[in-house]
Automatic annotation (TrEMBL):
Biased composition (Low complexity): 352-368
Region: Disordered, residue numbers: 27-56, 327-407
The protein, known as: Excalibur calcium-binding domain-containing protein
Keyword check for Signal: yes
Keywords: Signal
Organism: uncultured Rubrobacteraceae bacterium
A Pfam family per the record: Excalibur
Domain Excalibur calcium-binding: 371-404
Top-rank lineage group of the source organism: Bacteria
Signal peptide (UniProt feature, chain positions): 1-27
Length: 407
């Protein structure tokens, strides 16, 4: 037997091991790398030192293609149907969630609030409690969640209770940067989702009773201008928006209006009428002891330009006209010619006579153009002379503010 040294044995073993390792490497399947986008998404969904987290259902809903309806259209979701009524913006929101729950206000921390007014309806035969989850997507791809600190009627702590067949109106407030353009609203109710296209407006599909629900909702948010704009201009007569605000603004914080029931009298193609049962509560939440104020009222409506409008009744017109002060226009300085004492001095025993005073009605009937914004130093002074019908053309745009260019 040939002699083999110890060093030779070691060399042979090393060569054999190298051959085995190279063979294993050649027989192993090639590795595949995850696409860069998938890897990045996995990293985003992976908490530090943990497993990948699930995608937020609302975010996933917003990413889906297509929508289930537009503003004004009914959207079925969960146990209820929802209808987005309007989309508006507010710098400061005011809220009164219910009788005895106080009055509050909040300034936007980001820029402005986007308010989404909606009406929910329980289509089932039993009482339901729903907790709608929402997300708003804008045209830049950003998403926004509702501000839960703004307390609104009919959505107490995020929950809405609906009896069988009942409808209720409420609002979702989103605190967003100035200039945000909302694109879509995502909603999840009872595990079911729906998307609303906020670029498309089908207000012509909103039934008249939903207008009345939102109208009363606006009084719980100090949205008096929006409430006034729901009236048919042909029926407001001489009640301007300025008169309306002068009447309702002082009432904010002193009472709450609760809508108890709407009873349909009739609904035709372009006319409708409802009996409205309301309860007025004082600041502490106690019903106001005023049978006239709390008496049911008949609210007529008309359809104009594809949308329903409220008819301003004569009783409301009279109430506003009686409370809103009417001011006489500024009088011109009277110049009196020197009198001849010999001809004007009364006799010692002559009876005293009093000339009739000029009434405000006579002076307010002066033709338009007698006075202009140049006759006033401040906008506040001009505002006091803005009368129904605006005979002096102090409010050419009809927004209820006189001489807006004045300081």
């Amino acid at each position: 037997m040939p002699f083999v040294s110890a060093s030779g044995k070691h060399l042979a073993l090393a060569v054999l091991l190298a051959l085995l390792l190279s063979g294993a490497a050649c027989s192993a399947p090639p590795e595949t790398e995850a696409p860069e986008g998938d890897a990045r998404e996995q990293d985003q969904n992976r908490p530090a030192g943990g497993q990948a987290r699930e995608v937020d259902p609302l975010v996933a809903l917003l990413r889906e293609d297509g929508t289930d309806g537009a503003i004004g259209e009914r959207v079925d979701v969960g146990y209820v149907s929802l209808r987005v009524f309007a989309l508006r913006s507010e710098d400061v929101v005011h809220f009164a969630p219910g009788p005895g729950q106080g009055f509050g206000e909040k300034d936007s921390g980001s820029g402005e609030f986007l308010a989404v007014d909606f009406v929910a309806e329980n289509d089932s035969s039993s009482r339901v409690t729903v907790r709608p989850e929402a997300i708003l997507g804008d045209d830049s791809g950003a998403s926004h969640r509702p501000d839960g600190s703004v307390r609104v009627p009919n959505l107490v702590d995020g929950e809405m209770v609906l009896e069988a067949g009942q409808k209720r109106a409420s609002t979702l407030f989103f605190d967003v940067p100035n200039g945000t353009t909302p694109e879509r609203l995502g909603l999840i109710v009872s595990g079911e989702g729906a998307k609303v296209d906020l670029f498309s407006d089908r207000r012509d599909r909103v039934p008249p009773d939903d207008y009345l629900r939102v109208y009363h909702l606006y009084f719980a948010q100090k949205a008096h201008e929006e409430a006034y704009e729901m009236y048919d201009p042909a029926t407001t007569r001489d009640i301007t928006q300025g008169d309306w605000l002068t009447f309702y603004e002082p009432l904010w914080g002193s009472r709450f209006i609760g809508l108890d029931r709407l009873t349909r009298v009739f609904v035709a193609d372009d006319e409708a009428s409802f009996e409205v049962d309301r309860t007025f509560y004082d600041r502490d939440g106690d019903p106001m002891a005023d049978p006239v104020l709390n008496a049911p009222v008949l609210q007529d409506m008309v359809r104009a330009d594809g949308a329903w409008r409220l008819v301003m009744g004569q009783d409301l017109i009279s109430d506003i006209a009686a409370e809103v002060p009417r001011f006489a226009p500024p009088g011109e300085t009277e110049t009196t010619a020197p009198e001849d004492p010999e001809t004007t001095a009364p006799e010692e025993d002559a009876p005293e006579t009093t000339a009739p005073e000029t009434t405000a009605l006579e002076t307010t009937a002066s033709p338009a153009g007698d006075y202009s914004c140049a006759d006033f130093e401040t906008q506040e002074e001009a505002q006091t002379y803005l009368t129904p019908g605006d005979p002096y053309v102090l409010d050419p745009d009809g927004d209820g503010l006189a001489c807006e260019e004045l300081p």
